[in-house]
Amino acid sequence: MKTPILLLLPMLFCGVPAMADTIFDNGAHPPTNFPFSDLGAGQILADDFTLAPGQNTIADVHWSGRYLDGALPADAFQIYLCDDVAGAPGNCAALTLAAVSRTAAGAYFDYTVDVTPLMVPANTVHWLSIFNNTSSWLWGDQVGVGGNSMQTNNFFGTTPTWALASNGAAMDFSLSGPTAVPAPTSFLLSGIGLAALGFGRRKPAPAQASMVASLSGLRMT
Fold first, then answer.
1. With contact defined as beta carbons under 8 Å apart, do 137 and 36 qualify?
2. Is the Cβ–Cβ distance between 38 and 6 less than 8 Å?
3. For the whole prediction, is pTM greater than 0.90?
């Protein structure tokens, strides 16, 4: 008996692990210092990272911070991924964020957000910039752990000027991704291929679009 395609495809997703693995940890948790990274405060920070082959799809971002003078405003986070130009952030592109989760952790907050999965080149330096727009948000960091953070006061300028952060700290963030789960488009193509075995020959499917995101040519707006 032939299995209809619509019945076969859901079977392919059964039993597939969906746990996200940590693919990068900047080693700055728990934070010990809190500099501004807030558009309204006039300073934005970034820190660099490199992902290993096979662990270079970003699906979640985790970080820490707090608010000046105990304020608790509505968050307006933005997260940008930048390439590296001469040891500093270069061309940047905004990540697409779901709702940011904020959890109290004593004197600061832990944050986490799902992002539209993005595959970046492995073994390549990139920069992550996380900032709020409340005029009072401070990003957690830690001094003495090999930090390389940078700061700018004109992030959305035509040519942002970056300088080493005053305390040379490592910003507190980690990245996770669905490293155990194949890309959804791969599932779909595999399912169609298997189903076709019961229905005879079919024409070759078009080549699958590359999922590697290139930052070349992207500019901050």
1. yes
2. no
3. no
